[in-house]
Amino acid sequence: MTHPKKLFCFGYGYSCDYLGHALEEAGGWSLAGTTRSADKKDKLNERGIDAHIFDYQHPLVDPRFILDGVTHVVISTPPDDAGDPSFSIHAQDILKIPTVEWVGYLSTTGVYGNRDGDWVDETTELIPTSQRGSRRKKAEGQWMSLCKSEGLPLHIFRLAGIYGPGRSALDSIRAGVARRIEKPGHSFSRIHVEDIVRVLMASIANPDPGGVYNVCDDLPAPSHEVIAHACDLMGRPPPPLIPFTQADLAPITRSFYADNKRVRNDKIKNELGVELKYQTYKEGLKGCLDAEDYAAKTLFSGMNQAK
Fold first, then answer.
1. 45 lies in which domain range?
2. In this predicted structure, what is the pLDDT of residue 303?
3. Which among 81, 118, 188, 102 is positioned nearest to 151, based on CA atoms?
4. pTM above 0.85?
5. Among 64, 115, 198, 239, whose Cα sits 20 to 30 Å from the Cα of 97?
């Protein structure tokens, strides 16, 4: 017997929203999830997404009812020192869902820590060097323990730096906050949100419980090159280069520069058959610009028709 497909996202944020849109376009899916914001809950409900408030202070009020019929679960709630709040509060409720087929945990490549520019893959030992990476490593371990002991159909996705429309170098340039920090030999790995969706959809179609996947594009690159390319696309002069040793950075920004590694993505291609839509930040930023232009033209056209 096949069940209607129902996605539930613990943390219905940016990436989950794109996944939800893709599943709606595919057809045959219902969507549900959690948020910490009452305003966002109302907006999600208006779009037909069954949204609920959830955090440490607000567990799901009736998890058996809310999770009834769920076939696919995405967990993207940010962990703290105790690990993942979804695990701490609702792991047992997830285990009791009789219809669940697939669970995805959205982690970070930060779990690998600093490798001084060396390459890492899914078999590399996890030695996080940041609080953020340490918390994700703990959360991964929590969920993987249920995969091994209880047969939870878990898949872990280690995401590189996420960008996309509304969240890219283009936006920081427009806001006047973009800076080109130069730290010789340093690189970041990135992933466009649409390619995250491609990976998740491929895993849903070809589940492999216990699977772990790096999710990044083909070209690790220093951030100052990305900013310069974004400025070029926008026809603006790039900000001046600032040596890292002279840059006044917030602690969270400085922590990103503490890790230096290059992340391999062969597994999503070889095992899931994923073909990236945006193989590097260059195609990705152009895609963001095209999406913004299309949205602006659609809005302008709609305003004219309404007159």
1. 5-162+191-218+261-279
2. 47
3. 102
4. yes
5. 198
